[in-house]
Amino acid sequence: MSGFELMLPPFVACMVLVAMLSYLGLHVIATAIGAFLFALTRTSGHGGASRSRVPQEAFIGIVYVVASAAAVLVANKVPGGGEAVEKTLVGSLLWVTWPTIVKLAIAYAALGVFQFVLRRRFLTISFHPDEAERQGWKIRAWDFLFYLSFGVVITLAVPIAGVLMVFSFLVVPAVIANLFTADKRRLTIIAWSSGALASILGLWVSYTKDLPTGPLVVCMYGLLLVGAAVLRKAGVGLTLPNPQHD
């Protein structure tokens, strides 16, 4: 098998994952198990006057970390637990098959249609919660619906990419995008582009240097984030306008 044939399935899988996860990461990080908790932790401000003392993202990060630690503890008690823990953390991207990629793409396409149809409501709740409150929307109910669909996305992604890579796909492209703009459309473009670039570089270095694919892709995301932060600090990059309310 040639190098191209070996790395093509992981590359396509990464592009499918980046397309969905980096976009959803612009909203917030979540799992299906935490959907109800995240919906409850959103605090409503009366007329925008009050704020939660603890950001919702903090609750999300706590649940994500605790859930990962719990998975490690459970796996430690079963035969072959060490291998199970490693697969959970780093996935099996290098050995992904075309049937798995096709199933993932179909599922993500359906979820993408769902997100697209409800995009204005989800975007308003994520970026302009005060406006959503003024319109009388049931924010917690919509949050629950969003996070539940998000949980399905993560459930499908973790067996392929692992917890570490999924977390990187969700967080790093969104953070990079927010370094350069607050415009929602440009946020999406930058997030997709940076996620794709980090994945391509990680896969290429993994193949040429014969290094583990999953951890290397995660490290490449970290390096790309550092590089973006340095460029932003130096004043290099895009000067983009603030978003307008829809």
How do the helices and strands line up, and which of them pair or pack?
Layout: H1 3-24, H2 35-41, H3 56-75, H4 81-90, H5 98-117, H6 119-127, H7 129-134, H8 139-180, H9 184-209, H10 213-233
Helix pairs in contact: 1-5, 1-8, 1-9, 2-8, 3-4, 4-8, 5-8, 8-9, 8-10, 9-10
Please give a handful of descriptors for the protein shown.
246 residues; mainly alpha; 10 helices; globular
Bulk shape: globular
Radius of gyration: 19 Å
| Share of helix, binned | over 70%
Derived from helix and strand composition plus strand pairing, the structural class reads mainly alpha
The count of β-strands is 0
Low-confidence stretches: 45-55, 240-246
Structure annotation, total helices: 10
Q: Hey, roughly how much beta strand do the residues contain? A: under 5%
Q: Could you tell me the mean pLDDT?
A: 79
Quick overview:
The protein is mostly helical and 246 residues long. It has 10 helices and no strands.
Could you characterize the architecture of this molecule?
The chain is mostly helical. The protein has helices at residues 3-24, 35-41, 56-75, 81-90, 98-117, 119-127, 129-134, 139-180, 184-209, 213-233. Helix 3 (56-75) runs antiparallel to helix 4, helix 5 packs across helix 8 and helix 8 (139-180) packs across helix 10.
